[in-house]
Recover the amino acids of this structure.
């Protein structure tokens, strides 16, 4: 038997369509244009690609995109001054500072300088606390995208055994909070977990977010489980020619697809959902800032 593929590319396109519909209504009914400011410090090539894609998809959804590209040696104080300006700017509803930041800048200080209401990444300590206590928060985009895919595929998640492999602030921890809020029984596993294979085999829902290529083989997966692979790892692919590479997840797809009930492919699974959720969060932030009803189905 072969698992159902969860098509993140198609699902992300449907989210973007819903976002665009909301943006059009905000314009027509309230004269509002949601605006997203993205700040990039330095010239990290992967970050540049992300930022370009974010800008393009923001504009395609009918929103305003503000890009701030700063040199790699920008003093921390200058970055903080820009954030203070964006916090005051009524045309900006969402602020994202692309990570990683150069070493001379204190990333936590910068993130916590963002107005929590504009923190569309959901990384500000206030949003982390709101999420952890089950209150209305801005929710980090990647785990929000994973949750949307799980709800879409499985419906009600309550009572499910969920295992999250990875304990990062960006994915693992908020993912665990979201699954708990949906009444799953949640285990957070990581590289130091004893008998990780056995822990993974308990999972009805397995979320892999460790950043290690193909670390989770098919025989760690419970037959019929739903597998969400957050990993995006580039590995050498000599079979494609000398010097060629390819993208793989944290799950060994070829063996996992034979056991799982459903699985997200890499690429084309979780990846496209992240920017779609960033756009959704920007619309949510715009609605909250203006005391308007939030878009249905686009929040946790
Ligand atoms: N760098 C890689 N992923 C992300 C993300 O989701 N948000 C930010 N701000 N930076 C990132």
């Amino acid at each position: 038997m072969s698992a159902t593929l969860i098509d993140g590319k198609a699902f992300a396109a449907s989210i973007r369509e819903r976002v665009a519909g909301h943006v059009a209504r905000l314009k027509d009914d309230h004269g509002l244009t949601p605006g997203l400011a993205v700040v990039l410090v330095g010239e990290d090539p992967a970050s540049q690609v992300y930022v370009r894609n974010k800008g393009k998809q923001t504009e395609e959804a009918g929103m305003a995109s503000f890009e701030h590209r700063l040199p790699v040696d920008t003093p921390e104080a200058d970055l903080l001054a820009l954030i203070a300006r964006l916090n005051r700017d009524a045309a900006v509803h969402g602020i994202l500072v692309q990570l990683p930041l150069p070493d001379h800048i204190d990333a936590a200080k910068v993130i916590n300088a963002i107005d929590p209401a504009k923190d569309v990444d959901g990384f500000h300590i206030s949003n982390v606390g709101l999420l952890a206590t089950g209150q209305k928060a801005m929710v980090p985009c990647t785990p929000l995208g994973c949750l949307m895919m799980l709800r879409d595929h499985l419906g009600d998640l309550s009572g499910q055994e969920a295992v999250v492999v990875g304990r990062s602030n960006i994915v693992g921890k908020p993912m665990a909070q979201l699954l708990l809020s949906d009444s799953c029984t949640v285990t957070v596993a990581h590289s130091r977990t004893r008998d990780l294979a056995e822990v993974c085999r308990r999972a009805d829902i397995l979320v892999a977010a460790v950043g290690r290529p193909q670390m989770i083989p098919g025989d760690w997966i419970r037959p019929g489980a739903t597998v969400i692979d957050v990993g995006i790892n580039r590995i050498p692919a000599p079979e494609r020619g000398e010097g060629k590479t390819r993208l793989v997840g944290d799950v060994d797809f070829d063996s996992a697809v034979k056991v799982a009930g459903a699985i997200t492919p890499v690429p084309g699974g979780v990846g496209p959902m992240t920017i779609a959720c960033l756009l959704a969060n920007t619309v949510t932030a715009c609605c909250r800032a203006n005391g308007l009803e939030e878009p249905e189905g686009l929040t946790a």
